[in-house]
Amino acid sequence: MGDARRETDRARHEAADWFTRLSQPSVTTDALREFRAWRSAPENRAAYEKVERVWGAAGALAGDPEVMALGQRSSRRRQRSRRSGMTGWTWVAPAAAALALAIAAFIAWNVRATVYESGVGEQRVVRLEDGSVLRLNTDSRAVIRFGDEERRIQLTRGEALFEVAHERARPFIVEAGGAEVRALGTRFDVRRTAEGVDVVLLQGVVQVQSGDDASVTLKPNQRVAVAGAQIRPVTTADVSRLTSWTDGRLVFDETPLAEAVAEVNRYSARKVRLEAAGMQGSAVSGAFRTGDAEAFAAAVAAIFDLQVAEGRGGVLILKRAVPDGA
Asked: 3-class SS at 128?
């Protein structure tokens, strides 16, 4: 079973390379003869036909940051493996090569993929085929692909907590934006943000790698943010607070009010809007039930002497109280 899967992966990558090579303006007779010999194998012919079918969508794929990131990582791995002497196709135009890698990445990613999603205010717990546990936070999406050599998950939206079953021969890899988190047996949290990706380690050891191959190793109760290709300095994490969502709570500790409002809104279909000038940075502390925007708004109004008004669409507006007689 493992040999068959590796053979399929090999054919898939070689098909993308051949498609790029044959797309050049000039192709030699020797190259065509070599291609026909390669394509005579049934698994190679099937892989090449699949690349041709995907080609119609190549324009959209080439601009997709997730697919291109996967293709670029594949390119770096392949370049390292070819330094030992396999140089026959290094002349391929960079733009065409990148597109072919995007196609190969698209095919590799979507075949045998399982997708799990959660809605706003919903949590979802899934036991994966290897015994690992995936806990999706509100409004999150994860794509799962397990192979013989690695277990790979792409977090395309939101946040997830991973409890990884130990398998030394198959690393557990989570992709999110420009970050890649690699583990064997451990517990960690990954969250996509507007700025990039946050990783918090609860137990074990993980390696966090950015798009330019820079990396850091986290120990328990440490946190790191990745913005684009830049890895920020590692900091100490308040794990109980950062993972309180798993218990259905949001815990704030001297959190700026604007940030707390944004966090509450992640879990509720009914939103809170702060319209009190000068209050954005006011510190708020306390524990609130996820999804209960009304209780949060009422508590904040009481603490900061604000009033809650209902706006269009049921939005809860926090604004300064109007003095009596004004």
From this structure: coil
- Asked if 114-240 and 248-320 have one fold, the answer is no
To the question of domain 114-240 being in CATH 3.40.50.2300, the answer is: no
d(CA 1, CA 37): 26
Structure tokens at 252: 């704030």
Tokens of 10: 């090999």
Tens of pLDDT, residues 158-213: 999 999 999 988 999 999 988 999 997 899 999 999 889 999 999 999 999 987 67
Give the integer Cα–Cα distance in Å for 286 and 138. 20
Fold of the 248-320 domain: Phage tail protein beta-alpha-beta fold (3.55.50)
Q: Is 302 helix (H, G, I), strand (E, B) or coil?
A: helix
Q: Where are the domains of the chain?
A: 2-110, 114-240, 248-320
How far is residue 3 from each of residues 94, 105, 147, 267, measured CA to CA in Å? 31, 20, 11, 45
Mean pLDDT of 53-69: 53
